[in-house]
Amino acid sequence: PGVPVSISCEIMPEMQEYERTVTTVANSYVRPKVERYVGNLQREIVQRMPHARLRILRSDGGLAASEAAASYPVKLLMSGPAGGVTGALWIAASAGFPNLLTLDMGGTSTDVALVQNGEARVRRETTVGDVTVRSSSLDVRTVGAGGGSIAHVPTLTRALRVGPQSAGAEPGPAAYGRGGVLPTVTDASVVLGYLPVVARLGGEMPLALALATAAVQQVADALGLPLLRTAEGIYKIVNENMYGALRLVSVEQGYDPRDFALMAFGGAGPLHANALGRLTGAWPVIIPPGPGVLCAYGDATTAVREEISRTYVRRFAVAPAQELHTALSDLAAAGARALDAEGVPRHEQRTRFEVDVRYHGQGLLLPITLELSELLPGFPQLAARFDAQHLQLFTFTLEVPHEFVNLRAIVQGVPPAIAAGEIASGGADPSAAAYATQRVHIEGADRDALVYDRTRLLAGNCLQGPAIITQMDTTTLVLPGHVANVDPFGNLLIRPEA
User: How far from chain centre, in Å, is Cα 254?
Assistant: First the structure.
C-alpha cells in the first residue's frame, strides 16, 4: 500500500516491448512527484471550492481527470506547449482561419505546430530530451530560440551564433537590469528600438538601453562590425532558427506554408512574427489579444478526452470487417465509460476512430482516421488514404499488401461554449492609440515608428508599418511595407501592404 505501481499493459496497451518499457519507466519516474503535487492541489481546491472539479491538460490537447493525470503523468509531458496550440485553435475559430501555423516564443525556446481544418496534428510519440515515449501528443516541435537566447562568436569559426544557451529569467537579459551581462535577443531588440524604452515589461519593468547596448557591443567588437548591424544580425539569425522549425512541421510534412496563416504568441513571438510571415509566406500573421497567456485560454477552452487503443496485426486481405467493427466499438465503449465517470453526458460525447497502418514488412506506422461505415471488405478507402499520406510524406508508395497494427478510439466531450469577446468599433485611423514615436533600425536604415497602446485600439483600425504595439504581456512589431488591421475580436492581422 502506498507504493505507486505502473503496469505496461495499462500505460501502453500496444505491442513493441522496448517502447512499452521506456514509456512505463518514464511514467514510474515522474509519477511520485506528480501524484503528490496533484493530490495537494486537489485537497486545496476541495477546501476552497467544494463543488469544483480539477482537470489537467494532457499532451494531446485534451483534459484528464486529476486521478488519471496523477496515475499516468507520462501523458502530461508536453501539456505546456499543447495549451498554446489549443488556445490558438480557439482564437482561429473566431477569426475564421482553420489552417494555421503556430509560433510560441518565450524566453528560452520556441514551439511550433501545424493546424489543418481546425485540427492540430497529433503524433504517437513524445520526445523530452533524449527520451522518446509512446504517448500521444500534439505535433509540436521545439527549437532553442527565445528572447533570452545568448548571442556569441565562437573562437574557431568567428561567425555569429544565437542560442541555444539562454540567460533565463534570472538574471535574464542585460536590459532587465538584474545583473545579466551576456548579449541576448532581447538586448538586440532594445538596441534596434523594437522594444521601446517607453514600454514597461509586464506593466512594471523598465528597460535599460545602456546595459543592452554594452552587452551587444561585446559581440560587435568580436565581429568587428557596427553595433546596429550586429544587433540586426542577432535578430535575423534567431528568426532563421525559428523558420527552420516551421519548415519541420510544414514543408518536411508535405505542406506549403503559404497555404496557412501564422499565429504568433508567447511573450516574445509577436516581436518576430511579421519577419517570420515574410520568410514563410504565411499570411495573415495573427497576433491574438493576450499572446503571453494564450496557453491559459487553451486550458479553459478545450474538452475532456480519452484515448483507448489495442494492437491488432492483420493484413487488409485477411482482416474480417465485422471483427474490426466489433473491436473498434469495444474501444469506443471503454472510452465512453471513462467520460461517464467524468460527468460528461453521452449526448455530448464525440467518438473518432483511428487505425495505425503500414505496408506489410515495414516498421513505419501512419495513423489513418476512419468511419465505421468505411469498414468494407478489402478496405479500399483506407488503402487509398494511406497511400496518399505516404506519398505526401515520403514521395513514394509501394506495391505490397497493407496491414493494420493498432486500433484506437478517441472519445472527447464538447468544449465549453466560451465566445471570443468583441471590442468596440472605430474607423481606420488608429492615431488615438498612439502615444510615442520610437527610432528603429530596420533593414539597414533608421526610421521613425509610432508606438501604440493596444488597449486603446478599436476594431477596424489600420496600422501602417513601421509600427510598435505595446501591451502588458508582449510587444508587436509591424515592419515597413506591411499593415496591421484590428478585427472585431481584437486580433491583429498583419499582411503585406500590397
Answer: 19
Q: Beta strand 149-152 with 141-143: parallel, antiparallel or unpaired?
A: unpaired
Per-residue cell: 306: 480519452
State how far Cα 321 lies from the chain centre: 37
> Could you tell me which residues come within 8 angstroms of residue 212 by beta carbon, excluding any fewer than 6 positions away?
173, 174, 175, 186, 187, 188, 190, 191
pLDDT tens per residue, range 263-283: 999 999 999 999 999 999 999
What's the rounded Cα separation, in Å, for the pair 168 and 152?
A: 16
The answer for residues whose C-beta is within 8 angstroms of residue 43's C-beta and 6 or more apart is none
Mean pLDDT of the chain: 92
d(CA 221, CA 93) in angstroms, rounded, equals: 48
| Spatial distance between the Cα atoms of 31 and 58, rounded to a whole number of angstroms | 14
All cell numbers assigned to 468 = 510598435
Q: What is the DSSP string of 98-109?
A: -SEEEEEE-SS-
User: What is the widest separation between alpha-carbon atoms in the chain?
Assistant: 73
Q: Which among 485, 439, 491 is positioned nearest to 466, based on CA atoms?
A: 439
DSSP 400: S
Torsions phi, psi for 235 (to 5 deg): -60, -45
DSSP-H helix ranges across 49-72: 66-71
Question: Is the separation of the CB atoms in 112 and 248 below 8 Å?
Answer: yes
Give me the sign of the Cα torsion angle 92, 93, 94, 95: positive
Residue 26 neighbours by CB under 8 Å, 6+ apart: 74, 77, 131, 133
Going by their DSSP bridges, the two strands 467-470 and 445-453 should be labelled as parallel
C-alpha cell at 228: 546596429
Helices (H), 65-134: 66-71, 79-95
Give the number of other CB atoms < 10 A from CB of residue 159: 9
Lowest mean pLDDT among 93-107, 245-259, 360-374, 424-438: 360-374
